[in-house]
Design brief:
By secondary structure, this protein is α/β, with parallel strands linked by helices. The chain contains 11 helices and 17 strands. The strands form 4 sheets. Strands 3, 4, 5, 8, 9, 16 and 17 form a 7-stranded mixed beta sheet that branches. Strands 12-11-10-13-14-15 form a 6-stranded parallel beta sheet, sandwiched between helices.
């Protein structure tokens, strides 16, 4: 089979790999949709030779198929897999992490937080979904509701699921106003979900195209952060009070500090975007405003399943996130377009 790999320095290659066979505890998926995530760009842009070490994950010295938003159909099941968990022909999405499966974090569905063994991240230091087939442990697959497309399942497997997890950490409700800094795939997902929860959304991005999409998804107001006083604009929209919740998906240090300063007294600010730093003046920015700052890294298996149920029940049009659909053969063109970070979400369809 063919799979997409990143060579570094924005170089993409389509490489031949053997078709996978399941081990006793594995399943093999025939891929149907594999989403493109903003975090892919860290790998795509890395300098040659940086490898997985650049992400803090264990290094895999062999070429690794990328793509960590997989959805497909099970075509092979290992001999030890419980049929109640996975069966041939089942539509599934993947929780793209694997830990020791024995510690408290793993048993609660937070395998990415395992402290006992080096975690595997499918699409980063273990083969991912940008290929015809994907082999993963059976405990990583979740049923995909018939009401959801494979592209929606791919989004829920990372970007949309990440947004949902962050909103849950913030305890967002229909009483709240939320400022979402960055309207890339995760930010637009957060806008969709927050609107479905009844919250008022202030969407911020430097891309007019992305702000227009946020408006289409129900954002109450939009702000271009390149204005002279972005915090002032957010506070003006909230009659000087500030937002109940601020969510940063951009990874920009400037956006993060603006998100903190645009939050109300007793407010909550959530960091989702990977990388970068955050420098604050602790007393006025944090202590004297009783501000809660949360780091939110993706979601648990339980959270992924809850997100999928929410999308179905609230009829959230996750498929509308996707502006670009590609074949594997178009990998180079696809990532060059995605790297411009002006459009919506991309997906490879098999």
């Amino acid at each position: 089979m063919r799979g997409i790999i990143f060579n570094g320095d924005c170089e993409v290659e389509i490489m031949e790999f053997p078709d996978p066979s399941p081990g006793p505890d594995d399943v093999v998926l025939e891929m149907k949709a594999s989403g493109m995530c903003g975090s892919d760009l860290h790998q795509y842009r890395r300098q040659k030779g940086g490898g997985a070490a650049a992400t803090g994950l264990p290094v895999n010295l062999e070429p690794v198929i990328v793509g960590h938003e997989p959805a497909g159909v099970i075509v092979a099941v290992g001999a030890a897999v419980d049929k109640r968990r996975a069966q041939v022909g089942q539509r599934v999405m993947v929780h793209h992490y694997q830990g020791c499966n024995a510690c408290n974090e793993c048993r609660s569905g937070w395998t990415q937080l395992c402290q006992e063994v080096p975690i595997q991240v499918y699409g980063n230091n273990a083969h991912g979904g940008h290929a015809r087939y994907l082999k993963v442990p059976a405990n990583t697959v979740l049923p995909l509701d018939e009401a959801l497309s494979f592209t929606a399942g791919a989004a829920i497997s990372c970007g949309t699921g990440t947004a949902y997890g962050a909103l849950m950490r913030a305890n967002l409700s229909g009483r709240d106003t939320i400022a979402i800094f960055g309207q890339g795939p995760v930010g637009l997902s957060a806008t969709q979900l927050a609107v479905a929860m009844g919250a008022r959304v202030i969407a911020l991005d430097i891309s007019a195209e992305r702000l227009a999409r946020a408006t289409e998804f129900g954002a109450w107001a939009t702000v271009d952060p390149r204005s002279n006083d972005v915090v002032g604009q957010v506070r003006e929209l909230t009659k000087g009070r500030g937002v109940d919740v601020a969510l940063d998906t951009s990874s920009s240090p400037d956006a993060r500090i603006a998100a903190i300063r645009a939050s109300k007294v007793w407010g909550t600010m959530v960091c989702v975007g990977e990388g970068g730093d955050l420098r604050i003046d602790v007393s006025p920015d944090l202590l004297r405003r009783q501000l809660t700052v949360i780091g939110s890294w993706t979601f648990s298996t339980i959270g992924q399943a809850e997100c999928a149920r929410f999308v179905v029940e609230r009829k959230v049009d996750v498929d509308a996130l996707f502006t670009d659909r590609w074949s594997l053969e178009q990998a180079d063109e696809a990532y060059r377009a995605f790297n411009r970070q002006t459009g919506g979400k991309g997906v490879f369809l098999m």
